[in-house]
Amino acid sequence: MINFSLVDVKSITTDIPRSSFAEADLDQLADIILETGGIIRPLIVKATGAENYAVIEGHFEYYVAVRAREKNPRKGEMVNAFVISPKLEDLVIKQASAIRGIELLDKGGKTLPETTETTEIKKLESRLANLELRLEKQINEFKSELNQQRQQTADKIKNIEITTPKQISPLEIFNTLDQTKLTLKLINAGINESVANKIFTSIEKERKKRQFSSLSDVIERVKIPNGKTQKKGITSEKMVVILDIWSRINVES
């Protein structure tokens, strides 16, 4: 079985040394595949492990892909490859050798007459080239669709972040909200309007001196008139009730 895949260049190895090929050729073709977005003659590889592969055919193309990755790790991360089953290795090698030998030269340098075998090989090569082009087109379309989906997802997340109201902490409520908003929140927490206004008056007076450092600081400093004396505007028990109601309101909203 032969599967066409995008394979991580780092996961591929070959037993042919890089020195077998001219660096200038590798460099030139690496620039081309980075510009076009892929290699038009995929490697033929076999799996040697869970995510590891060895080159069977296309050693030059492999080193071109390696050079492309060296130039641009992001664009050159993956390479087109036919991944074959190990039991087909010998047949694939024979097929590749036959394709390479399509043009046979005699000793005088003239092309030998075409045989039925070479004609069939040429037809096979033509079909393979067409298949490669179709696969390359499908890959590019897939990449484009994937990029569009990623952008749409990013836009949705951004819109959610923009439209979702940011919750502020209870301490920030006591330190920043104006009279209308703070008294409304106190009323929603079960405090009558008259007392809520008195509490806000005390809060405003105290936070002009300095910001509240904690909810305990709010309890300690906020005082309201109680006849000729002053009493705590918000007791510890009342603060617990207020926080519980505010938290449930935030969850429901």
TrEMBL record:
Keywords from the UniProt entry: Coiled coil
Occurrences of domain ParB-like N-terminal (ranges): 7-61
Stretches assigned to coiled coil: 114-163
InterPro entries xrefs: ParB/Sulfiredoxin_sf, ParB_N
Pfam families assigned: ParB_N
Protein name: ParB-like N-terminal domain-containing protein
